[in-house]
């Protein structure tokens, strides 16, 4: 059973998250269940891959919530399409806040997972929020690393300086009242913009009937880059990311290096890296074989750790 709900955040920005609450089969409100927060990719919404994973995990016996980030989708907040990683991290904990108010959720059995940038935000939330007892990631992206170092990690940090300049110019234009949002693509906006076949799939996912959604335009405000470029989703993972950790990544994913980085950095003594063969970053969003394999690892992981 799935229900549309709203979650009031307490992050200081006053946003209300539009979310979908999924309950397990044969739900019994007189007992308690483990719960999982599911966070969507940058540029995505709850109706896409996050919803797919949330529904499947509910079928496996968990209470799950997939939600739209603050300033995005059906959630509130202005400017629209702001991708502030600090607020997106706070959104994860805001959903945990809500779960602790539900009488049928066991507060000591709350986990979190995410896809792409949503996975990075999930990790960052878990570093600072020990209420999250287990962490799963799929095709994880540390959005700060990606924008500093490129899709495959081949770019040096300092080379991102011009991007910071563009973000600063956008903020100045906004302050003067002459900004128009200056959209910055989170995935290729056109097929010909894709630098490789894997990212061509990202265009296909967001901009064709494969999985397009009217609330997911595929871009963010350029001012967002001023928060993203210096951001590290794994900051202090060496000290505070002690929860059980499952990292799921495609063998052919250009983004794989970011999951490998966290695997090395995380303080957790209970960490597993599962590689899906013949899968890339995007196929783990909605590919039947790939998502089935990912879920065959995620469901027992959360069942064992929560």
Topology:
Blueprint: E1 2-8, E2 16-22, E3 33-39, H1 49-59, E4 63-67, H2 85-100, E5 105-115, H3 117-128, E6 132-138, H4 143-149, H5 161-175, E7 183-185, H6 197-207, E8 219-221, H7 225-228, H8 237-240, E9 245-250, H9 256-265, E10 271-276, H10 283-286, H11 288-305
Helix pairs in contact: 2-3
Rg on CA atoms, Å: 18 Å
Model regions low in confidence, pLDDT < 50 over at least 5 residues: none
**Under the CATH scheme, which class?**
Alpha Beta
Strands across the major sheet, in which order?
A: 1-2-4-3-5-6-9-10
Provide the structure class.
Answer: alpha/beta
Q: Going by CATH, what is the homologous superfamily? A: Alpha/Beta hydrolase fold, catalytic domain
**Any guess at the CATH architecture?**
3-Layer(aba) Sandwich
| Helix run count | 11
Integer tally of domains = 1
**Number of DSSP strands?**
10
Percentage of residues assigned to helices? 25-40%
End-to-end separation in angstroms reads: 22 Å
Instruction: Examine the coordinates and then state which fold CATH places here, giving the name of the CATH topology.
Output: Rossmann fold
Largest sheet: 8 strands, mixed
Range of strand content: 15-25%
How are helices and strands ordered from N to C? EEEHEHEHEHHEHEHHEHEHH
Rough outline: globular
Estimate the mean pLDDT confidence.
96
What does this structure look like?
The protein is of the alpha/beta class. The chain has one domain (2-157, 233-305): 3-Layer(aba) Sandwich (Rossmann fold), CATH 3.40.50.1820. The protein has eleven helices and ten strands. It has helices at 49-59, 85-100, 117-128, 143-149, 161-175, 197-207, 225-228, 237-240, 256-265, 283-286, 288-305, and strands at 2-8, 16-22, 33-39, 63-67, 105-115, 132-138, 183-185, 219-221, 245-250, 271-276. The chain has an eight-stranded mixed sheet, sandwiched between helices. It has a two-stranded antiparallel ribbon with strand order 7-8. Helix 1 (49-59) links the parallel strand 3 (33-39) and strand 4. Helix 2 (85-100) packs across helix 3 (117-128). The protein starts with a strand and ends with a helix.
């Amino acid at each position: 059973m799935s229900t549309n709900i709203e979650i009031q955040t307490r992050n200081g920005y006053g946003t209300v998250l539009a979310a979908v609450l999924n309950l397990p089969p044969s739900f019994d409100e007189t007992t308690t269940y483990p719960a999982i927060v599911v966070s969507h990719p940058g540029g995505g919404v709850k109706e896409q891959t996050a919803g797919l994973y949330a529904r499947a995990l509910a079928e496996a016996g968990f209470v799950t919530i997939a939600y739209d980030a603050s300033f995005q989708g059906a959630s509130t907040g202005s400017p629209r399409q702001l991708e502030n990683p600090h607020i997106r991290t706070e959104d994860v904990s805001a959903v945990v806040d809500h779960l602790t108010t539900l009488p049928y959720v066991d507060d000591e059995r709350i986990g979190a997972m995410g896809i792409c940038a949503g996975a990075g935000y999930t990790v960052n939330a878990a570093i600072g929020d020990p209420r999250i007892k287990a962490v799963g990631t799929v095709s994880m992206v540390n959005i700060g690393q990606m924008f500093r170092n490129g899709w495959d990690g081949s770019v040096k940090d300092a080379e991102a300086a011009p991007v910071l300049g563009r973000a600063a110019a956008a903020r100045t234009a906004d302050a003067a009242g002459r900004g128009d949002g200056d959209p910055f693509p989170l995935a290729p906006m056109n097929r010909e913009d894709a630098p490789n076949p894997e990212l061509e799939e990202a265009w296909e996912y967001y901009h064709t009937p494969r999985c397009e959604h009217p609330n997911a335009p595929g871009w963010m405000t350029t001012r967002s880059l001023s928060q993203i470029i210096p951001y590290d989703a794994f900051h202090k993972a060496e000290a505070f990311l002690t929860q059980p950790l499952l990292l799921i990544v495609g063998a052919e994913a250009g983004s794989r290096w970011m999951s490998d980085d966290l695997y090395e950095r995380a303080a957790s003594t209970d960490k597993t890296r599962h590689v899906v063969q013949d899968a890339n970053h995007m196929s783990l969003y909605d590919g039947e074989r790939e998502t089935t394999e990912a879920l065959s690892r995620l469901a027992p992981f959360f069942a064992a750790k929560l």
